[in-house]
Specification:
Helix content: 55-70%
Strand content: under 5%
Structural class: mainly alpha
Radius of gyration: 16 Å
């Protein structure tokens, strides 16, 4: 039960603050409109810090199927628990996407650009090239996973004291590697809100870009495998 509570709550908070800052920046008539990339990356870093800190005592605060998969590979998470972690993460991210819509509902209605609306839920590459987009997500996640495992190598999972360095790691990835694909580096973070985008009654929301949706799922999972194997070689 603690795993379900922690991962669902933490993942929902991650999206409320993470996608919330995107909505603040890109939606029309928002007070943060056109705040820029720095505001978005800082907001996402704060989202990670808050979510990890709040959920750590319940579940270890993975909040990301790539993190859970990596911990299973290196033997710090039972494979039997992996589906529970991933299911709770996906549910939390879906709920978080719905909450962002509920908070910014008037601004979604006022925004005519479908790409801006979609950006408040899921990622989209700057240049559509599925092969390169996959490579970008895989490598960015490999770097993220390796960093997380090295930062937290003395623990059995992600504890609350690890929230700040992990948040700074996400900030660095966003600033340095986020340009090509928007740095999903988390399958649930992209897929859960993408489903919310599909089911919510949003005017002018346009396409979900489902043909691209596999990239921010498969890329981070591949990166998790690579990062965890590299970690084992190093350690």
């Amino acid at each position: 039960m603690n795993i379900l509570i922690g991962e669902t709550l933490g993942s929902a908070l991650l999206i409320v603050f993470g996608n919330g800052v995107v909505a603040n920046v890109v939606l029309d008539k928002s007070k943060g409109h056109q705040g820029g990339w720095m505001v978005i990356t800082m907001g996402w870093a704060m989202a990670v810090f808050i979510a990890v800190y709040c959920a750590a005592g319940f579940s270890g605060a993975h909040l990301n199927p790539a993190v859970s998969l990596a911990l299973a590979i290196i033997g710090k998470l039972s494979w039997n628990l992996l589906p529970l972690y991933i299911g709770a993460q996906l549910l939390g991210c879906l709920l978080g996407g719905i909450l962002v819509w509920a908070i910014y509902r008037d601004h979604f209605s006022a925004t005519k650009d479908s790409a801006s609306i979609q950006a408040c839920f899921c990622t989209k590459p700057a240049i559509h090239n599925y092969r390169q987009n996959f490579i970008t997500e895989a490598l960015a996640t490999l770097i993220f996973i390796l960093g997380v495992l090295l930062l937290t190598k003395s623990d059995q999972g992600l504890g609350s004291l690890d929230a700040l360095p992990v948040a700074l790691l996400v900030l660095g990835i966003g600033l340095s590697l986020g340009g090509p694909t928007g740095y999903a580096i988390n399958p649930a973070r992209d897929l859960g809100p993408r489903i919310a985008h599909a089911i919510l009654p949003i005017t002018n929301k346009g396409s979900n870009d489902w043909p691209y949706a596999w990239v921010p799922v498969a890329g981070p999972l591949a990166g998790a495998i690579g990062g965890s194997l590299l970690y084992q070689l190093i350690i």
